[in-house]
User: What shape does this take?
Amino acid sequence: MKINSSNHKSHRQVSVGMLSLGCPKTLVDSEIALGILQKSQFEIATSAADCDVAIVNTCAFIHNARQESIEKILALSQLKEKGRIQKLVVMGCLAQKYYHELESQLPLVDAFVGSGDYPKIAEIIDEVRHGKKIIEVGKPLFLYDENSPRFSLTPSHYRYVKISEGCNHKCSFCIIPQLKGLHRSRPIEDVAGEVTRHGGAGAREIILTGQDTTYYGRDFAGKFMLADLLKALDSIENINWVRLLYAYPAHLSDDILDAIRESKKVVKYIDVPLQHISDSILQSMKRAVTGASIRRLVQNIRKRVPGAAIRTTFIVGYPGETEQDFEELLDFIQEAKFDRLGVFPYSYEQDSYSGTLPHQVPEKLREERYHRAMALQQKVSLENNRRWIGKELQILIEGTAKKNRNKNIQADYVGRSYRDAPDVDGLVYVRANPEIKYQPGDIIPCRIREAFDYDLSGEALCDSNHP
Ligand code: SF4
Assistant: This one.
């Protein structure tokens, strides 16, 4: 439906499409923005490339993410020139920090909306439809609540729940506090209310996210309250799994680990970005931990949460990183045997403290160290996966194994175990009795038969339709 100049068309006749880039926190913002528009009677299109008003919710935390956001905006600008879309709105982190210079560089953009200003999205689109150019970028203070309207962009069997937004840390390489503002948590009852609603709507897995989820509650209670939140969510009947993301190492305390161990629903998956292991690098990164405290933390996780799957991330090629620092990191990767590991070549960030440091590592060497670290982790991951052969795992079915990323695996379904967060970790391929039909969201016991670098495969142990 094309917007004609008569801007008195009702919202029902205006379709809005969303392209959501970046992290799960930004995805939640996109869902809330679409929820607000749907409540205002706008039609929600399935694609931002085929609608009246296209919105790009951008990411800007590192150079490559900004590049990707700008490429997508330029692609949609071309569609606007061709008349395929009428209006173009840029929201989120890129708009929050760079709207002033982008305004002239991206003339086809009709509105720039900050990472905390999207609650005004319906009014902004009305203004844009009246031909106005809008800059709505304030201090990011907003945090949604359980009554915020929401339009799901994930399969219905899992939902992201943002328990907090913003961050009070000052990690030297990170500009996220400039993009998302200071830390603010949602009350426990509010989070529990939302989780119950998602459970009622068919969600089986709830994924808790924030910039630093272990800082939860410090703002409204003056003390860390994550363990209390996890216990509260454990009593919600209509969900099966609760997965916690983005724990900060210095705050991953015994009471949180004990709450995870004692919980029926919180999966034994610990996502704790560590960033490095060398003391001098950690100090320069302002990470408030040392190599020794990190090693104690990993041991403590494995002692307090037996069977825990640990995911972490490391930055390689950080300013001043010597070959010796890097070798120490490789030794730690070999020693710690993380289940899931993401490695990032250091990204030079102009407005970050680390961007001002001497001894910037040449890009070529950063890339080389990235490949050496990932090659080592590939071996570690296969070794870890082989330990599951013959064992039983509960698998959350994602769907049929039509689109199989591992050509040589024969499977009927694909799913995830407690060791796998969506989109970033491994998959489990499942062979099943053809008479039994499983639905996305079913959680079924499987016997693991094969191990691959990052994935597993096995067979369903159910012999009836009721897992
Ligand atoms: S904890 Fe550090 S890396 Fe993470 S968002 Fe906060 S400042 Fe950035």
Remarks:
- The mean pLDDT is 95.
- Residues 6-136 form a domain with the Rossmann fold fold (CATH 3.40.50.12160).
- The longest strand covers residues 392-400.
